[in-house]
Amino acid sequence: MEKKAFFLLLITLFINCSKDNEENQNIEPDQTEEALPVISISEFDNVIEKRTGFRVSVSGADSETNTKVLINNDELVSTSQKNFEFEINPFDYPNGQTVMTVKSVTSSNEESVTNEEFEIKKLLFRSIAGLSSESVDSYLAINLQSTGELVAFKKIITYDDPIFFHAEDNFIEEDIIITQYLLGANSGFHLARMYGNVKPGTELIGIQEVADELELDFIGTNNASSLNITLEGNTNSGLFSLIGRSYNFGNSSFPTFEIKYDEALTEDVFLYYFNQSNENILDNYRYAYIDNLTDQTLQFEEMSLLETDDIFTFELPETVERASISLFGFASENDYREDFFRLLFGNSVETETSGYSIGYPILEEYPIVVKSTVLDFLDGDQMIFDQRGTPDITIPDLMVQNKEGIIEINGEHDFSELNLEIAHPDPEKNDIFRMIYKNYALNVIEIPFETFEIPEEVVQIINERGLGIDTKDNVGEMELRITNYQNKLFPNAVFHFPLRREFGDAFYWTIPLEN
After folding, report:
1. Region label for 9, one of left (φ > 0), alpha (ψ between -120 and 50) or beta (otherwise)
2. Per-residue pLDDT tens for 119-156?
3. Could you tell me which of 109, 129, 286 has the C-alpha nearest to residue 205?
4. Positive or negative, the Cα torsion across 17, 21, 26, 28?
5. pTM, whole model, 2 decimals?
6. Which of 98, 104, 96 shows the shortest CA–CA distance to 58?
7. CB under 8 Å to 267, separation ≥6 — which residues?
8. Which pLDDT tens digit goes with each residue over 238-261?
9. 412 vs 341: CA distance, rounded Å
10. CA-to-CA dists, residue 252 to 12, 17, 230, 273, angstroms
11. Which residues contact 28 (CB under 8 A, 6 or more apart)?
């Protein structure tokens, strides 16, 4: 009996233990336990030289998180967003090794930390190449925009020499002036090309990269082929002109011409004739459109003459002293962008003898014609217009004031150039030092020449030619040149010159100023 009772007790204990084990297996996990946040940071270089953007994403945590970004333990960002962007400005931190810490903490205090190390070097300016020449000695300098103080200077050794400047820790971020000095080794002409209001960290791309951005082929010409043209029947005294970028002869009074041209680019040649002895050269203007590029003979009398409706007359303002107009023809939009022009006409007048009007032909042989007009005013101003399309010429509405060293420009424009020319004190010497101060789309310009510091090495080289310039406070003949372009395509505006016709219509206004 006792053995039976003991056996039943064992069975009961076994059944109860089995139930307890099943219940324990079904217990829910502790809901307070959570996965750690996973931090991802976008890739970046080991050296930070200019403003650099970063992307951070936080994943793996279901609850809310707070994420902080610290640079050398100083907080830069604090956010509850799980995907965010931020920027590091190297000028806010000392040069050298730097630690970026990203720390993300969940609402249940689960924490993840990621550290990244990089070097900070404050870039002032970099140019990959192209700032030197065999015919001149080239230097590059950096001055502060605010005071004109010289902060960096070096000689450029070769054309392919990459040039860069980095700032010291005590540099306070501000706009700078980049200056390229071109000192004539075998001539008396010396140039300082100054570019104002440049942001620290500017990197200059090469001329080919600019052309690529503007989708220009940047094609050179090879005028190796030749074409002979003979004019018969010409009894008038005058000049024939054949000028284009893919061919070139020039002007001549001879009736036989050998034209050198690039057969891969040239599909036509434009020949025109004018008589200089006529009071109005359009009275005897003749032209021929030559599309057969083989030796040939043309009859002068068969060259086209203008009809009355083919002549446009532009009335000049009475403040104009001299004027000239040149017409350039382009066979296609591609030729226009690459500047494969043909000179169609050129004329100039003196208003004192010719009156206040100037004429030019309207030609339909080329689908695109650009007028380049030069107006010299009685007060010394000069305006140049490159305009495509309508026959008329539009003079821009601009006003300039010079108030105690501050120049104000009222009117639409892209660039301005403030030029100071210092000539040799001996009038029989041709030595010149010219400073060209370029600005991008500024309406107010502070004249920099009184405070701008020129490197002593440059001063010494120039003064060996007897010019007598100083490191500061130079005076000379000063003028302002304002430019405006129809197409505002200026990647890397510093040191960028318009590449052929990518700028579209343009005007250039040059104004003498008192120094």
Report:
1. alpha
2. 999 999 988 766 667 778 889 999 999 999 999 999 98
3. 129
4. positive
5. 0.80
6. 104
7. 291, 331
8. 889 999 999 988 888 888 889 999
9. 28
10. 128, 120, 12, 10
11. none
